[in-house]
């Protein structure tokens, strides 16, 4: 070590043990750096485990500003040219790291949310902490929102994802009716729960079907559509866009919505225009509704 330092023209001085005051310049800078690290971590609310990143970011900016003992920056004294400060960004601000097109899939986002942690050490760019992937990347393809903290924005996004918006599931009319999510069961249960049962009719608690909704209480609508081949008869529910085109679909629908299935109420023959699942004439007339497709 001594020979190496001598070749470089460096005079190696050794201090006594347990006497930090002999190395006053380094000790004073350590105090300055410590204050800078605490300020960066506190203002950005970044976890303390990233104190090393805060140290590198602080020294990078410290070497590019003037100090009271000189009109030149440490970078200018070392390299002989003035540094640029246009690329400096706040530590911990919100960052959007771009994803290259060659590694991006069709439905992937064009950028990933991250936090600015410092500046690249060997390349021209920034160090970005991708919270979702829990890793640090160095990239120059990044945009910053200097007025927002990355930690606060990430927490806000996570809280919004936890909201239950109660949005209905998308389904197609031609798909199976099991995918349709509606409030039919809740409406019928609330209706039957408010009614007081008569003393003569006592429900059988031991029966497995005591909680099922009678199929006659559901207002089924028999529709006849125009179709070249196959059956053109289907059943629907009042107030819904569900189409049930076979006995199997109706049975699955009743099982899903806690309805007691009665196959005698349905008829898919095209020549039969009567509907046996309704109690009065007005409901039968409504069941004979015909849908006409305008070409």
Automatic annotation (TrEMBL):
- Could you tell me which residue ranges the Integrase catalytic domain spans? 1-82
Recorded hits in PROSITE patterns, A to Z, give:
INTEGRASE
Spell out the Low complexity composition-biased ranges.
Answer: 190-200
Q: What SUPFAM superfamilies does this protein map onto?
A: Ribonuclease H-like
One of the record's GO molecular function terms? nucleic acid binding
Query: What biological processes does GO assign it?
Result: DNA integration
For region Disordered, the annotated ranges are: 174-209
The protein, known as = Retrovirus-related Pol polyprotein from transposon TNT 1-94
What is the organism of origin for this protein?
Trichonephila clavipes
